[in-house]
Write a structure and sequence with these properties.
By secondary structure, this protein is an alpha+beta fold. It folds into two domains: about 5-210, Aminohydrolase, N-terminal nucleophile (Ntn) domain (Glutamine Phosphoribosylpyrophosphate, subunit 1, domain 1, 4-Layer Sandwich); about 215-270, no CATH class. Helices cover about 35% and strands about 25% of the residues. It contains eight helices and twelve strands. It has helices spanning about 55-60, 65-75, 125-135, 145-155, 195-210, 225-235, 240-250, 265-270, and strands at about 5-10, 15-25, 35, 40-45, 85-90, 95-100, 110, 115-120, 165-175, 185-190, 220, 260. It has a six-stranded antiparallel β-sheet with strand order 7-8-1-2-9-10, covered by helices on one side. It has a four-stranded antiparallel β-sheet with strand order 3-4-5-6, covered by helices on one side. Strands 11-12 form a two-stranded antiparallel ribbon. The protein is elongated.
Amino acid sequence: MIVSTYSIAACDLEAGQWGVAVQSKFLAVGSIVPWAEPAVGAIATQAYANPRYGPDGLALLREGLGADEVVKRLVAADEGRNERQLGVVDAQGDAASYTGSACLDWAGHRTGRGYAAQGNILVGPETVGALAETFEATPGQTLALRLLDCLAAAQRAGGDRRGQQSASLLLVERDGGYGGLTDVVLDLRVDDHPQPIEELRRIHTLHHRLFATTPRAEWLPLEGELRAEVDERLARLGHETLAGWAGVENLEERVDGSEAIDPVVLEALRDAS
């Protein structure tokens, strides 16, 4: 089955993050295309996708091979190479892509420092161009937002010739995930939706609200009138402590003691009560 797709594999070396964003007229594209490992690299495998490119490519990157050599080795060992498409970004931010000669038009790729953009069965090269140009134009933003913006720009440029169905965003960072106990910062998937990119952005916003962190200097002291307000709202909701309520609302990662409150938690508490 053809994973007619546009994707971007990328990294933010300063943040220590690698990721892949993808959209396709294909059910649950996030289960096949994106692969990433912190301080190792990111890989997108698509067209008549070879899922082994993911783990095998990461293994080669782990050995210290660069993106270009990884692409060459994966493709050389694959008899179905002419129908494959592949993008790789390595631990140093170098990138390489491959588009097989039998991939369905329009198919092609573009690479630059820190990213590999590729697509097949597209309206034309402008889709891949939008991926690349948006990434290049958005330094300073978080990698997650850059990748979401890349998908949106590619869709506006024409996107997948067959339409939309699914999208995903995978982002990794050493110990950067939930509770500092996982490397997966984001693994968000929209498997079947008429507007998957918009839905993916909505889910990312929700994830950010629940699991991101606000600098401690921006927290508000829980004292005086604010302390009284918080206690009143908690009582109204049937909770004795902020931590207890936050646990029910999946906001426990944003609570640390009872001397100060994250503004995001305060806003959520006010909305709830």
